[in-house]
C-alpha cells in the first residue's frame, strides 16, 4: 500500500511541513480510500504566511504591470498544459467526473486569461485643467495583503476567482482552500510560482474555522473573499467587516429554471438535466427548482424518464453523468432531506437513494431525484440541498412564476427557456435575481463580466471577476495637482461657481 502523503503548506515560496498535531484525512468519495492528510495549521504558521505576504508586497506592488501580465500569461500556459493532472486531482478528492473537472479547470483558465489584460484593466482617469492650471487624476492602487477562503465544490475555479486578479493588481495573497479536497488548489498555487510569482506573493495555509477566523481578524490583511455556504459566509462577512476589512461573501442559493410552453422541449429538458444533476448537484449555480408554466407541466413524465437513464459511477468513468457526493456526511444529509420531502407531502417521482455502483460499493452515491407537487414552505424547497435533487413546481403564467421566484430570499441565478423575445424581456426586467440566463440553464458569465449574485446569496457590493473584481482588489486615490511653469505667470484664481 502506498504511503499516504502529508500535504504541505506554501509559505514564502517554499513547501513547508506543518508542525500541527491536528490532521484531517482527505478521502476519495468513490472508494473511501484515504488519499492524503491535510494539516490544520497553527496560528503561528498563519502569522508567518501573512508576514511573508506583507514583506513581499513592498516589492510586488511596485512591479510593472507588464511584469504582472507576463506572469499571468505564463500561468495560463501552465494551466493548459496541466489540465489533465488538475482534473485527476479534483476527481480523486471531490468525486466529479473527469470531463466536468476538466471543464472546471477551463473556467478557472478563463479568469487567468482575463487577468492577462491587467494593463488595460487597472487604469485611472485624468483631466487636464479641471480647474485653471489644475490637473486631477486617479491612481488605481493595490490594497496590500489579501485573503481568500474557498469551498470544496470547485477546488480550482474558486481560487481562480480570487488570487489571479488580486495579485495581477499588485496585491499579495494568503489562500485557505477547503480541507476536503485541497490537493488541486495547492498544485494550482505551485503553478503560479512556476509562472513567476515571487516568493511570498501567494501563500497557502490549510485549516478549518480557526484559520478562517484568523484571516478575518488579522490586522495585516486588508480584504477577504469567501465563496461557500450561507451560514459560514455570514460569519466570515461579519467577522471581517467588524475587523475593518473589505469583504465579499458569495453564499448559498436556490436557483430556479422556468420553462414556458413555447420552449423547445428537447433543448429545455436536456439542458435542465445537466443543470440539475451535473456535478451531483454540488454547485452553487445548480438549477435545483424547475418552474413549469402551463402546458409545460405535461413534459414532467418525459423529464423523469430521461433522468432515470443518467449514469451514476465513479468520476473516472468518462461516460458517467454523475459521480459521488464529496463525503459520507454529505450523502447522509441529502438522503435525510429527501426523506424530509416525502414526510412533508412532496411527490417523489424519482428516488436516487440507495444507489450501488459495482466496484465502488462504498461510494457516496446519490442518483437523480425528482420531487413533484413541491410548495414553498417545504424544507426541500427552502433549504439548499447541494445534491442531485430537483424540486418541480407548476404555475399557470410567467407572471406567477416571477412572483414565486422573487419571494425566495436567495438571488444567485435563474433561467428561462422560451422562444418569445417579449417574454424574455419581461422576465429579465422583473426578476429580482442577480444572474439571469435566457435559454442558458446555468448563467455564470464569462470571466470578463462580474459574478453578480444578489440578495440572500451575497454580502458585499462587489463580486468576483470582471470590473467589479478589479474594484474590490484595489483602492482609488485621487490627486489634484498644480504646477507653475518656470519663469511664467500662471493665473491661480479658481472659480468656485
Automatic annotation (TrEMBL):
Keywords of the record, alphabetical order, are: NAD, Oxidoreductase
Under the heading Pfam families, the entry gives: Aldedh
GO terms for MF: methylmalonate-semialdehyde dehydrogenase (acylating, NAD) activity
| GO BP terms | L-valine catabolic process; thymine catabolic process
Identify the domain of life.
Bacteria
The family database entries (InterPro entries) matched by this protein are listed as: Ald_DH/histidinol_DH, Ald_DH_C, Ald_DH_CS_CYS, Ald_DH_N, Aldehyde_DH_dom, MeMal-semiAld_DH
Among its keywords, does the record have S-adenosyl-L-methionine?
no
Q: Per the database record, which ranges form the Aldehyde dehydrogenase domain?
A: 17-479
Q: Does the keyword NAD apply?
A: yes
Give the enzyme's EC designation.
1.2.1.27
| Entry's family note | Belongs to the aldehyde dehydrogenase family.
Q: Which PANTHER family match?
A: MALONATE-SEMIALDEHYDE DEHYDROGENASE, METHYLMALONATE-SEMIALDEHYDE DEHYDROGENASE [ACYLATING], MITOCHONDRIAL
* Protein name per Swiss-Prot or TrEMBL: methylmalonate-semialdehyde dehydrogenase (CoA acylating)
